[in-house]
Amino acid sequence: MRPPFDPPTLTPASLAAWRAEVSAALSAVTRDFEEKHGYGPGENAIHPPEAEDRAAARRLGAEAAGFAELALYFSEVGAVTMSDVGNAYFLHSGARALRERVALPGAAGAVPAVLIGSDGGGILYAVGADGAVWRSGAASEESGFDRITHDLAEFLDLLRLSVHRFHRTAQPGFV
C-alpha cells in the first residue's frame, strides 16, 4: 500500500504522505531487524522540523529559485536518520543545511549548493541552485559531484523506494 506521492511536485500534502509512508517502512525494517541481522537496529526516524529549520527554509527559499523545493521540504521535515537502510542515509535539518555549502562545477547559478546529507560511507548529497540533487564521487567534497536527480522530489522518491527495497531484500538503496 502506497500513499499518494507524486515525485514531480512537492507539496505539504505530498511531504506528509512521504513522511508517513517512510516512517511506516522504517518501523517495518526495525521490527524484525535483530532477528534478520543478528544485532539491534540503530536510529531510524524522521524528525519534525524545529523553529530554526523553518527559519532556514525561509532563508534558502529567498536565495535561489532552485531552492524552492528545498525550502518547502525543510519547512515540513526535520533531520532524517536511516541508520539501518542499506549503507545508511542521513539528511540534515534545515538549520544545519543552511550552514553547509559546496561549490558544484556544472550546477546552474552562482549560489553555492546546499549539502543536505550523506550516506553511511560518507558520500555527500547536495541540492544545487538549479534544484537538482548531486552526489559526491567519494567521501569528500574534493571528489567531485554528479547530478543524480532532476529535483528533490525525485531524490525523496528514490529514498522511499530504497527503504522498501531494503525491507524486502536487504539490498542497498537507489541513491
Description:
The chain is an alpha+beta fold. The chain contains six helices and eight strands, in the order H-H-E-H-H-E-E-H-E-E-E-E-E-H. Strands 1, 2, 3, 4, 5, 6, 7 and 8 form an eight-stranded antiparallel β-sheet that branches. Helix 1 (12-31) runs parallel beside helix 6 and helix 3 (51-63) runs antiparallel to helix 4 (68-76). The longest helix has 20 residues, at 12-31. The radius of gyration is 16 Å and the shape is globular. The model is unreliable at 1-6 (pLDDT under 50).
Question: What descriptors fit this protein?
Answer:
175 residues, disordered N terminus, 8 strands, globular, alpha+beta, eight-stranded antiparallel sheet, single chain, 18% strand, 41% helix, 6 helices
Helices and strands in order:
Elements: H1 12-31, H2 33-37, E1 44-46, H3 51-63, H4 68-76, E2 80-82, E3 89-91, H5 94-99, E4 101-102, E5 113-119, E6 124-127, E7 133-136, E8 145-149, H6 152-169
Antiparallel strand pairs: 1-2, 2-3, 3-5, 4-5, 5-6, 6-7, 7-8
